[in-house]
Amino acid sequence: MFMGEFHHSIDEKGRLIVPSRFREALGERFVITKGLENCLFGYPMDEWRGVEAKLAALPFTNADARAFVRFFLSGATECEVDRQGRILVPANLRDYARLEKDVVIIGVGTRLEVWSREGWERYSLDTQMDTAGLAEKIANLGI
To answer: Whole-prediction pTM value?
Structure first.
């Protein structure tokens, strides 16, 4: 399970240190892709296979489903951690998530997310203001 918040920097070549506690859970190879709210999602390979299966099950006759599958899979790339504990984040994903220097990596259960520091601060501020409202909305989901 991925949890916690870690602050790192991405270098000019697009290399990012993966928190050591996440490296073991990710395995030797894992997938990162465009996430929602302009962050990146990172999945261990076994979890990614489940995501792929769910995407494949969406009806290709539905335009919204096709658009989401295109969005999600077009940015997907397989990564591996180098000897210094870094991954190379491709330019298209850095651009999408607006990753320039200061980066926040968070654990979200079955995946990790990579945010620009500014994006994470803005998102956190917006959602923390209504945490009680969010809890009330998801209470019907059995959480």
So the answer is: 0.90
